[in-house]
Amino acid sequence: MCGEKTLCTKLIQVADPGSRDGKNPDRSLKSRLLCGLGLGKDFEMIDSSHARGGKIYDPDSGNTYDATMVSDGSQLKLRGYVGVPLFGRTEVWHRTDAHVAVCTP
C-alpha cells in the first residue's frame, strides 16, 4: 500500500543495478537509477484480486499508461492502455518461491 486506499509498485530487482532511466521524456530524470524506481501509482483496490485507476510507467519506452491489475493465484496480470482498456496490452508477472536479491538504490 502507498496510501490509505491505494496501491503502488516499484522495481526491486534489475539485471544491471546501475541501469538508468534513459528513455524518460523528462531530461532531469534520465540519470536516475531503475533500482527502486516507482513504476505504478494510484491503483484503487476493488476487491482482494482487482485494482484499477492506476498509472504505470514503462522505462523501456519512457511512456506512462492508464492501468489495471488482476491477481490470479501466482500471476499478476497488469494491463496498460491509452484511453480504453480494450486498446492496451496485458503483461503477466509470475510470483516465484525462489529467493531473489533485492537491489538497493
* Biggest sheet, spatial arrangement of strands: 1-2-3-4-5-6
CATH level 1 class label: Mainly Beta
Question: What is the correct CATH architecture?
Answer: Beta Barrel
Beta-strand level of the residues, as a percent range? over 45%
CA-atom Rg in angstroms: 14 Å
* Main pleated sheet: 6 strands, antiparallel
Total E-strand runs? 6
Percent helix, as a range, is under 10%
Uncertain segments of ≥5 residues (pLDDT<50)? none
Q: What's the rounded overall pLDDT mean?
A: 90
Question: What pattern of helices and strands is seen along the backbone?
Answer: EEEEEE
Number of helical segments with 4 or more residues:
0
Assign an overall shape. globular
Distance between the termini: 20 Å
Which fold name corresponds to the CATH topology? Lipocalin
Count of distinct structural domains: 1
Give the structural class. Answer: mainly beta
In short:
By secondary structure, the chain is mostly beta strands. The protein has strands spanning 6-10, 38-47, 50-58, 63-72, 75-81, 88-94. The mean pLDDT is 90.
Q: Secondary-structure blueprint of this entry?
A:
Layout: E1 6-10, E2 38-47, E3 50-58, E4 63-72, E5 75-81, E6 88-94
Antiparallel strand pairs: 1-2, 2-3, 3-4, 4-5, 5-6
